Amino acid sequence: MQARQKPWHGVLVATALPMDDRLGVDLDRYAEHVRWLAAEGCDGVTPNGSLGEYQTLTDSERRSVVRAAVDAAPDGFTVMPGVAAYGAAEARRWAEDAAEAGCATVMLLPPNAYRADERAVIEHYREVANAGVPVVAYNNPIDTKVDLTPALLARLHGEGLIVGVKEFTGDVRRLYQIAELAPDLDVLAGSDDVTLELVLAGAPGWISGYPNALPRSCVQMFNAVAAGDLATALPLYRLLHPLLRWDSKTEFVQAIKLSMDIVGRYGGPCRPPRAPLTDEQERIVREATEKAVAAGCR
User: Fold this and answer.
1) Residues β-bridged to residue 139
2) Is 262 annotated as contributing to ligand binding?
3) What is the pLDDT of residues 261-276, one digit of tens each?
4) Is 110:143 a contact under the CB 8 Å cutoff?
5) For 134, which of 108, 126, 128, 163 could close a Cys bridge (C-beta 3.0–4.6 Å)?
6) The pLDDT of residue 143
7) Active-site residue numbers?
8) What is the set of domains in the chain, with CATH numbers?
């Protein structure tokens, strides 16, 4: 873990959430996972994102996950919870709850109950920004059907509603467009399989899925790219890429949890409606994970 300029910089792991055999949240295992990620060199965690299956959690579970992460985090280790909700009022309450728990920043999707127009998106972010905690937007038009375009992000930033954006479109051209319109807005790599390209272009952080299984190698790759050391970064990126691309697939939670199981961490089951991987999907993930581990990734 290195000193970072801002809490949302560096490698922040979108944490998977361990479930027991009855699909109950295992907070002890989760806290141990947070401590392990910190020890392995990650800069923070992002609980209650899609990888953390937040949509299936009760309010009590969701609140407890944030507090477990905060309690487990060492000094200087960021906890940036996802505060997505169907309504802006509920999202603001989650942002206020995160601030009360001691979190320095939160991550927020646009309205995701319907295809919101620009006015609704702006007011959504305005309401949550009123909670008083810095907001990192999350642009995932694949799942939300709302695209935070470069122009819209520049407006949100210009009005002081967001400090950064997790960019998940997979379009590396976006970073350059956003930088032209909003030079001070931090664009964070959000899709694991375009991380090298975005960090090389100036992204100061990576909100990442696969460090749940292979944190040291992912951190090494990120730091090498950030330092301009492509001789180190490119071979690692090529080796990891068959796994990293699962982050953009529908079955990303199941794939990452399977890789965790394979490397000796606890991934475990997912709550419905997520179904287990097919035999073919499991074979592909298993072979790619074992190949990476055999090559020294961890």
Assistant:
1) 167
2) no
3) 999 999 999 999 999 9
4) no
5) 163
6) 87
7) 138, 166
8) 10-238 (3.20.20.70)
